[in-house]
Sequence to fold (520 residues):
Amino acid sequence: MSDLIDDPREGANEPEFTVSEISSAVKRTIEGTFDHVRIRGEVGRVVHARSGHLYFDIKDDRSVLGCTAWKGQVAKLTVMPEEGMEIIATGRLTTFPGQSKYQMNVQDVAVAGEGALMAMLEKRKKKLKAEGIFDPERKQNIPFLPEVIGVVTSPTGAVIRDILHRLRDRFPRKVLIWPVAVQGERCAPEVTRAIDGFNAFTPGGALPRPDLIIVARGGGSIEDLWGFNEEIVARAAAGSAIPLISAVGHETDTTLIDFASDYRAPTPTAAAERAVPVRAELLARLEETEGRRISAMRAALNHRGEKLRDLSRALPRREALLAHSQQRLDLASARLPNALMARINLGRTGLSQASGALRPSLLSRSLEASSERVKDRAVRLAPALERKCTTAAIDLQNLSKRFDATRVDAQIELRRQKLSDVLHRFKQAAHAQQDQQTRKLDALDRLRLTLGYKATLDRGYAVVRSADGDVLTTQKAAKSHVALDIEFADGTLNIGTGRPAKPAKTATVKTDPKDQGSLF
Fold:
């Protein structure tokens, strides 16, 4: 007992702590002392976790500090840390008891200086260029006169007023404005959503789909324009199915969207000038073109008129073309009465000869001989039919043994189909031949009407006949008759008596088929 009192161990009366108690004390000390700090350094290792958290290191030439940014904090970062970037991180120091180390919980990241921004911009530019985002082959042609123009810009700045004023002066068009923040942390996501939103419009929908997009902003520092250097904005501009004009900053300002867009305008006003032509100039060009077109048409019509008049002089006269046919018609009409009388006499003679050979006695003898032959045939018909039926029955029985009913049905069906095809072709051929004959008959009828004297009456001529219906062709013949019938196109006029006009004598003319190819 004395040993315990006389020999105490050094420090045996100090309190004992657990690991968790020490870790909690250290955590309170560090977080209470460094609850808000800004640290400058170069970004080292960067890890994006599947959970959405971000882990990276900040280092200098002697030390390394681990940093964390939780999922909600990552979405609010204006600058995403990249390896090799010099940044200024704002946050607070904390500890991680599981590994007995301290780290920084980052709430904001800023690039340290303009030189670092330019270095990061050049790095992004090389990356996107290697992917082909800036290739000229991907750029689309700007439409000559878009119906609807979509403008992505701030609705309260001077940029939108300049664009609208310039469009109104040059060529008024429909304008859809998508308001966005043009600087700050909301700039890049809002511009990206605006470009994708215009592309998502349905053609012919409630809101018309723009034919052209203008992304515009006024001038500013590189920090102010940094939202248009973000990778998501450049990719959205390059992937736009609608042609896109970038007009960000002044003429000397260059951002990544300028390389990814289809056309880069030095200023927002220049973008409006590129979007539409000058209406007054188009009207002047249109009037000039219309005047040239009318002059060319007049010259062409005059030239063709002169050529037509020259050709018409070489054509024969109408009377010369019809004289030969009229002469043949006159000759045929003169021969027609004699030909008709000769044909009647020939028929009468043939009838007389045929009737002279017919006697009742000859007919009686012929009938008796025919009756005898019929009786003889009737006597022999029954035995012959019986023999024929027996032979046919035997032949049919022999044939039926050789034929298969299914094969016969198939052959019958095949023959029926062939017969149907032949009948179909025959009907088509018959209809075609009938149509051809109908057209030919119509043509012959039109030719008959053209060559007949009725057509001549329609042109103002008249036919003078005597009271007996004879055609009078001379003045002397007309004077020898007291009453005359004059036939016009619309009727007959009687001169000299009040009697009704006799029907005009008509004639049917048969012409040589080699000459006319038809019968009248």
